Amino acid sequence: MKLPRSKKITDGWFLSCCRAVIAAAFLLVLALPQPAQTEEGAAPPAAVEAQTAKAPDAGPSPIPEVNDGFEYKREGRPDPFMPFAQVVLQGAAEEEILTGMRRFEPGQLRLVAIVAKGKSYRAMVEDSAGKGYTIDRGTLIGRTGVVEDIAPNQVIIKETTYTMAGERRFNTVEMLLKTRGEEE
């Protein structure tokens, strides 16, 4: 296959590029500083002058102590190298692993039965999978809920929440015992 004349690289162009690269390399070598020419084993004159100009080693010079009556007392003072404000990342705390009844929020449970045990009551709740659990007064439910009271027909759960201002608020959730005719 024959290339058109415009696509061929001419020998003159290639040779001129090679000559330019060789000339640039030659000029670069000439521009670099050359080490001093000395006899074998003899140090260059700059090194000889540096060796003779060294002062004898007198050791470290002691810093004179100045006693102006000032003594720094650190007790009760903050560290001057620590920042004034500490950055606390919210949500950076370790995630608490919830087990048992803490895995369920009160809305996910259905009150199935309440059993009287002397003067106290125990309740049985069921999750969406049909698995039953017994709860007493003081049982933790969900992230912030606590069973506050168990009555003959209901369970009262007190949940703690915090506002944006940091105030603590309490929400009360009532789980009512439904009879067979009331079931949904």
Give a written overview of the molecule.
The protein has helices at residues 11-31, 45-53, and strands at 110-117, 120-126, 132-135, 140-141, 145-150, 154-162, 168-176. By secondary structure, it is of the alpha+beta class. It has a domain at 100-176: SH3 type barrels, CATH 2.30.30. It has a 4-stranded antiparallel sheet, with no helix packed on it. The protein has a 3-stranded antiparallel sheet with strand order 1-2-3, with no helix packed on it. The radius of gyration is 44 Å and the shape is elongated.
Write a brief structural summary.
The chain has 184 residues and is of the alpha+beta class. The protein is 16% helix and 24% strand. The chain has helices spanning 11-31, 45-53; strands at 110-117, 120-126, 132-135, 140-141, 145-150, 154-162, 168-176.
Helix segment tally:
2
CATH topology of the domain at 100-176: SH3 type barrels
Q: What's the architecture of the domain at 100-176, going by CATH?
A: Roll
Helix and strand string, N-terminal first?
Answer: HHEEEEEEE
**What distance separates the N and C termini?**
87 Å
